[in-house]
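Dear colleagues,

As part of the handover before I leave the project, I'm documenting each prediction I ran so the next person doesn't have to rerun anything. This entry is a single chain, and its sequence is reproduced below.
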Amino acid sequence: MKKNEIISFFNSIATTRDLWIRRNSYYHDELERLMTFLIPPDASVLDIGSSTGVLLNKLRPSRGVGIDLSDKMVDVAREKYPHLEFLVQDAEDIRINEKFDYILLSGSIGVFSDVWKVFRGIKKITSMRSRVVITYYNGLWEPVLKLAEKINLRMPRAYQNWLGLKDIDDLLYLNGFEVIKKGKKMLLPLNIPLISWIFNRILANFPFLWRFCLIEYLVAKKVLVTENKDMSCSVIAPCRNEVGNIEPLLASLPKIGARTELIFVDGLSTDGTVEKIRELIPQYSNRFDIRLIHQIPRDDKDKIKENVGKQNKMLKLGKADAVRKGFDAAKGDVLIILDTDCTVPPEDLAKFFFALSESRGEFINGTRLVYPLDKGAMRLFNLYANEFFGFVFSWLLGQSIKDTLCGTKALTKESYLRIKETRSYFGDFDPFGDFELLFGAAKQNLKIVELPVRYRARTYGDIKIERFKHGLLLLQMCLVALRRFKLSN
């Protein structure tokens, strides 16, 4: 949903919000019990996504501020609780110049289109003593909650994402927070005398049953993060017949780091891609150092004939070869791969750079499987395949990897040179480049951190992957990883 659609949606239910709270009073009373346990009275509290202010008022803060995107919700809250302050603000662009003891996000995470940006903004209004308290719904309950909405047992919601505790933990970490406490509550959100007490006070604390609780929560604090502001960045953009995507990429790519280099690596494009790049270089040269290199020299006719392959698919050399040539030519301290199809927004690359410059990780892997996918962005077969390979490679490599095939990856030039040393150990097996980098990062014991990205449908050109042919290659890579990581040591 677009932001104006979210505002309209919540404005439309502002007058009935309190009615829904009363109808589900048992759930809200239990949530209040948890929040008053985690947040003491007389603290200064900022409630992000404060709705009509009911929960903020229950916390009895010495200074209570609530922000919400819906002006109608804010109007209701101001009328009910004049002793508290309520502001119409976007959580992704917080405009408050004070620090709070507690920042509360209760059930609001799922409405944000960019959770990374929300946490980035929270960082500015927290001190080292501040605590961030987040509650959200267990993903196992998603079908139950959606059914409850359909049969009018629960207030409708406008969801943008459905994040698990691990996803939230990762996003907090990337923005300079550490989780100090996490847990789950409430097996039964309905009030059935004695039964609810047994389920929610006793059974909900058992290790196995605890996994099925409705409410997930965590408490985080800010940690000291030192940013290296002198680091430069090289963006590597492999391309083959992407003429329609070149200008949108250049227009939306931000300046990153002390100096931004953009290297297009062309793979024998025939649709005018090379000509479009050359045409636009002067227009954008004040923002980036732009270079164009060719995967195969245009005058090497024998090599062209040997590698051309299908017109709208990868060269036989593979995307991996283009990435290697771009990395080897790059002058920046940080190397980021950006697929030229712009299915991952170029403006998101700054997040990858910050993760490295602030030492949040050593190999930053994009994941498309956290936020909802745009319609048509990924075929159902590909989605299931990505989830399967993510599970397999997490086990094989010993680090959590949700999306192995996301093309957006970042690492320092120094780390790349270390990975390059491992290439002979695994062999030249990977036409994509993703696995060569992931395997090398794991072999060199680099800290792999995943960063959620939005994944959009293509607006120009064709997908270069051949599903079944390359699916078989992925299975072969599983065997390579099994042999090298599990059976050889």
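The mean pLDDT is 90. The domain at 3-222 is CATH 3.40.50.150 (Rossmann fold).

All the best with the project,
I.
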